[in-house]
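Section 4.2 – Deliverable D4.2 (structural model, holo form)

The reporting period included a commitment to supply a predicted holo structure for the target in complex with S-adenosylmethionine. Inputs used:
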Amino acid sequence: MEKLSNPQVTIEVIKKYNFAFQKRFGQNFLIDGHVIEKIIKAADITKDDIVLEIGPGIGTMTQYLAESAGKVYAVEIDKNLLPILDYTLSEYDNVTVINEDILKLDIEELIKKEKGTLKVVANLPYYITTPIIMGLLENHIPAKSITVMVQKEVASRMQAGPGSKDYGALSLAVQYYAEPYIAANVPPNCFMPRPNVGSAVIRLTNWDKPPVEVKDERLMFKLIRASFNQRRKTLQNGINNSPELSFTKEQVVEALKKLGINENIRGEALTLEQFADLSNILS
Ligand code: SAM
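Output (C-alpha cells):
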C-alpha cells in the first residue's frame, strides 16, 4: 500500500475503520515523510538493529522502521488500533505489535532472545513523555539510544545546561544517563490532528557508564530535586527545607566550602559534576 505519511492515505484509513482519535492517549499522528526520514536518520537505524517503537498509532513511522531495521516491536495501548495496524503493516514480516501499556511492559523480557542492537524510536504521547523516558533510563534498559519526538519545550529542558532557564531536575536526570542531541524542530502541521505546541526530535545516546562517579545515586537525585523545588532559594535553604533530606544548613555550607563553591549559590548554577561531588561529600 502507499505510505501513510501521505495525508490522503491516512484519511482514507481512518475513514475505512471509522477510527476516533483519543485525546487521553495523546494521539497526534505524523503525516510528513520528511520528518519520519529525519527521525530514522537521527536514530541511525540499520538492519542490525532491533527497534522498540512506543505508540505506533496507525503505523505511519512503523512502515519506515520496518524497511530500515532488522526487527520492530511496536507497543500500542489502544486496542482500537490493532485491526488498523494489521492492515497497514501487512506487507512487513519483521514487525510484532504488542497491545500493552509501555509503562507496564517488561522490555528486557521482550527482547531477551534478540541478538541485534536495541534502539528506541517513538513519536511519544506527550501526556506521559517524562515517565516513559525516565523509566527507560532509570531501569537501564539495554538500548544504545532513544530517539523521540517530544514537546519542543521538553526537548530544551532535557538538553539545557546551568545558566539556562530550562535547566532543571529533568536536564540533570537525563544527562546523568545519556547524551542529548536535538536533531530537528517539527511544526504542528506535520501531525493529524495538530497539537497546540511545537515539537522536536531528540536523540539520547546512553552512556556506557555515567559521566560522573556517584556513591549514592538516590541521594544525588534527592539533592537535585530539593534544589530545583525551590529555585529561587539558595542551595543550602533548598536542601534544608526538603522533606526528603535531613542535612543542616551548616553541613551543606561545610560541604560547599570543601568544594570551593560559594555558600550562597543557587542550585540552578550547579553542574552535574558538582551535584555528584556534593552528594559524595554528604553521603
Ligand atoms: N507513532 C504514531 C505516529 O507517529 O503517527 C503515533 C504517535 S501518537 C503521538 C502516540 C501513540 O502512543 C498513540 O498511538 C497512542 O495510542 C499511544 N500510546 C499512548 N499511551 C501509551 C502507552 N502508555 N503505552 C503505549 N502506547 C501508548
